[in-house]
Amino acid sequence: MNVTKVTAFAPASVANVAIGFDILGFSVNALGDRVTLRRAPGGKVQVRAIRGVVEDLPLEAEKNTAGRALQALIESRKLPFGFEMEIDKGIPLASGLGGSAASAVAAVVAANALLEEPMTRIEMLVAAMEGEAVASGSRHADNISPSLFGGLVLTVGIDQPRVKQIPVPEHIHAVIVHPHLQVSTKQARAILSRTVNLSDFVWQTANLAGFISGCYTGDLDLIKASLEDVVIEKQRQALIPGFPEVRAAALARGALGCSISGAGPTLFALCLETDAPAVRAAMVSEFASRDIKTDHWIVPAQSGGAHVVSCE
Ligand code: HSE
After folding, report:
1. Where do the structural domains in the chain lie, given as residue ranges?
2. Strand, coil or helix: 284
3. What is d(CA 210, CA 223) in angstroms, rounded to the nearest whole number?
4. Which pLDDT band holds residue 80 (cuts at 50, 70, 90)?
5. pLDDT band at 112, cuts 50/70/90?
6. How far is the CA of 42 from the centre of ligand 1 (A)?
């Protein structure tokens, strides 16, 4: 093995996509995290530096999403060596854009390039999920899978995950609006009811099935009718000031749907490419009327996943 140093990039992601809580997400490669690894003696992970838009993350590998993912990999592969790691954060903390997942994914993708025998994508997914659990308190892959594979991704199962990339009609774009607020994923999960009303269950199931069928068949009317979260959004919207008005503004400008990205506070809207600028302006203006600053992007609903950017 001649490679001694690898840097990998993993994109941000929108989890849940309104109707697929914990199982559906899409990648957003306008921003992401980079992880640089070197092999180190002994089966340990040493976090050497954390830079970029977030710096105050734990340096103890066990408490760091990327560090924990690498430890899981060392254990599962029984590796005789460890890693020295530097993390460059491009995704804001507690933003709902899958930052903890992206660091874990970038770490396993970089590690893979330093192994004698490469991993399968599913092995990488399982290791990265261990990292995600450090941040959110539970193993789920709706940020990990899109960040790793790219595009709109459905994940079925936890211990033996099955991953399906769902085709999205090409002219559908995503408007992503990140208000400058923070929402803790652990807290946003803790407030959720443990039970679901039967009628809501039926609607949410129909909406997930309708949305995915609409994507496969290019049926915009079905996508629009289905892209509505009747279970999670109403429990979390109080965490985001102005949420109902921002969502209504997006829909009034022609968005197919608008909801919370992951645990929030970022919001996303899916819309036709031609409607995206007006949808974005309306959402940003609603937040601005509450003195809330935002970052915002218009991106294709399908973009690439994690990859190695340099090897030495
Ligand atoms: N599906 C997760 C949630 C994403 O909404 O809590 C954030 O980890």
Report:
1. 5-165+303-311, 172-300
2. helix
3. 7
4. very high
5. very high
6. 34
DSSP, residue by residue, 225-256: HH---SSSHHHHGGGSTTHHHHHHHHHHTT-S
Instruction: Evaluate: CB of 185 within 6 angstroms of ligand 1.
Output: yes
Instruction: From 189, 237, 267, give the residue whose CB has the most ligand 1 atoms within 8 Å, as the site to mutate.
Output: 189
- Which among 102, 40, 32, 117 is positioned nearest to 71, based on CA atoms? 40
Mean of per-residue pLDDT scores for the chain? 96
**238 Cβ contact list (under 8 Å, min separation 6):** none
Rounded distance from Cα 312 to ligand 1 centre (Å): 35
pLDDT at 204: 98
Instruction: Confirm if 99 and 91 have CB atoms less than 8 A apart.
Output: yes
Q: What pLDDT is stored for residue 117 in this prediction?
A: 93
Determine the residue of 23, 143, 229, 236 to mutate for testing ligand 1's pocket, defined as the one with the most ligand atoms within 8 A of the Cβ atom: 143
Q: What is the DSSP string of 10-64?
A: EEEEEESTTT-TTTEEEEEEEEEEEEEEEEEESS-EEEEEEEES---S--SGGGS
The CB density around residue 193, as the number of other CB atoms within 10 Å, is 9
Whether residue 36 has its Cβ less than 6 Å from ligand 1: no
CB of 136 sitting under 6 A from ligand 1: yes
**0.85 exceeded by pTM:** yes
165-181 average pLDDT score: 97
Q: Which atom of ligand 1 approaches the CA of 189 most closely?
A: 6
Q: Which atom of ligand 1 is nearest to the CA of 22?
A: 1
Neighbouring CB atoms inside 10 A of 146's CB total: 37
Instruction: Tell me which amino acid residue 88 is.
Output: D
At the topology level, CATH places domain 5-165+303-311 in: Ribosomal Protein S5; domain 2 (3.30.230)
Q: What kind of fold does domain 172-300 have according to CATH?
A: Alpha-Beta Plaits (3.30.70)
Q: Tell the residue nearest (CA) to atom 6 of ligand 1.
A: 263
